[in-house]
Amino acid sequence: MTSRFAFSVSATDGRARTGAVAMLRGEIRTPAFMPVGTAATVKAMKPADVRATGADIILGNTYHLMLRPGAERIYRLGGLHAFMGWERPILTDSGGYQVMSLSDLRKMSEEGVRFQSHLDGSAHMLTPERSMEIQRLLGSDIVMAFDECTPFPATRDQAARSMERSMRWARRSRDAFDAGGDHAGRSALFGIQQGSMEEDLRRASADALLEIGFDGYAVGGLAVGEGQAEMFRVLDFAAPMLPEDRPRYLMGVGKPDDIVGAVERGIDMFDCVLPTRSGRTGQAFTWTGPINIKNARFAEDRGPIDPRCACSVCSTWTRAYVHHLVRSGEILGAMLMTEHNLSFYQQLMAGLRAAIAEGRLAAFAADFRQGYRARAEEAPGSA
Q1: Which residues are identified as catalytic?
Q2: How many angstroms from the chain centroid is the CA of residue 158?
Q3: Following DSSP, what letter does each residue of 303-359 receive, concatenated?
Q4: pLDDT tens per residue across span 4-48
Q5: What is the pLDDT, as a whole number, of residue 36?
Q6: Maximum Cα–Cα distance for the chain, whole Å?
Q7: Residue 151: exposed, middle, or buried by beta-carbon count in 10 A (0-12, 13-18, 19+)?
Q8: In the chain, what are the domain boundaries?
Q9: Which residues pair with 58 in a beta bridge?
Q10: Using CB atoms within 10 A as the burial measure, which of 88, 163, 289, 306 is most buried?
């Protein structure tokens, strides 16, 4: 029988690794990109179509599912996998990101965070214990510890206090997860390193997490406005602080070139709303950089979105047709753009895995960066 959680590395190339996470609901090939299914759906995609792009795992959102339809309701309906029709692994975030992103709607204390619902104004208390309970009710395969995502910029004192609170919450998350009975025996718990841009705070956070002990470790508090160069600078020292025999997950990242650089620095797992959200607004990712399909120059373009892409969208429809759909606000436009973008991301991950396995990551990354150039029409709102 497959282990509830086992991480193996099959090859390395520099600091990059390729391998797999084996779980009861299936294997996750690493480096892995997880499409975001915030409200029990990857927007504009059926679960089978998400799987067909090459995704091994998706992400669900604790905060949003807590509010609607409610964790207890999902539990009564058989859990998140049955509810949404996705039988492979699901990682659920803890709600910690909303501590930062919904700062105008929350009040934080040592106990946890009291949110005012952005839907109806109702009050909800999210603590490490409640976050673990919600993720248990959802039936999550990879559970994230509850933390405070430190905003950027932050003073050193703010970053230190935020990190220290997150480590206290990590201990409470571990205790509550372990008390979860059968669910704890079927799922895994990841801790989240914080510390903003400060190397010594990142070290203190990593040491605290290692003392508690987790199945995997995430790097949190990046991709929050600091820019790629600063993110890479932090990853250069933050990622090696985390155990080599556990997967490393960079939360909320990111653009394709962000992912390539993070893989080079030893990161194994990623998630981001970018391919789905951008697809719905007209941005397509290609091997030669992002394009805005709404741009007038595509109105009579008979070529595919990306000639190098192997997805069904690129083999079936033209840029001209997708341009028409998106400009017309047709639902099919969002569907095709999302499918293409998710397929592109999974093709990128497959390329990274193969390059690491064959010891040619540096050449792959250099070729990718040379081809993936910025375009004037990258902004989805351009005409």
Answers
A1: 93, 271
A2: 25
A3: S-S-TT--SHHHHH--HHHHHHHHHHT-HHHHHHHHHHHHHHHHHHHHHHHHHHHTT
A4: 999 999 999 999 999 999 999 999 999 999 999 999 999 999 999
A5: 98
A6: 60
A7: middle
A8: 6-272, 279-371
A9: 90
A10: 163
Kindly state which CATH superfamily the domain 6-272 is placed in. Queuine tRNA-ribosyltransferase-like (3.20.20.105)
The reported pLDDT for the residue numbered 373 is 77
pLDDT in tens, 147-173: 999 999 999 999 999 999 999 999 999
8 Å CB contact between 289 and 373: yes
Q: Over 90: is that where the pLDDT of 369 sits?
A: yes
The per-residue b/e assignment along 286-316, b for 16 or more CB within 10 angstroms, e otherwise, is bbebbbbbbbeebeebeebbbeebebebbee
Task: List the structure tokens of 89.
Answer: 């692994």
Q: How far apart are CA 74 and CA 175, in angstroms?
A: 24
Chain CA centroid to CA 205, Å: 21
- Spell out where 1-94 has E strands: 6-13, 16-23, 26-30, 32-35, 58-61, 90-93
Rounded to whole angstroms, the Cα distance separating 333 from 356 reads 35
- What does the alpha-carbon distance between residue 138 and residue 36 come to, in Å, rounded to a whole number? 16
Q: Is 155 exposed, middle or buried (0-12, 13-18, 19+ CB in 10 A)?
A: exposed
Length of the chain: 383
Q: Which residue reads 């602080």 in tokens?
A: 241
For residue 12, the SS3 value is strand
- HSE-CB at 176 with a 13 A cutoff on CA atoms is 21
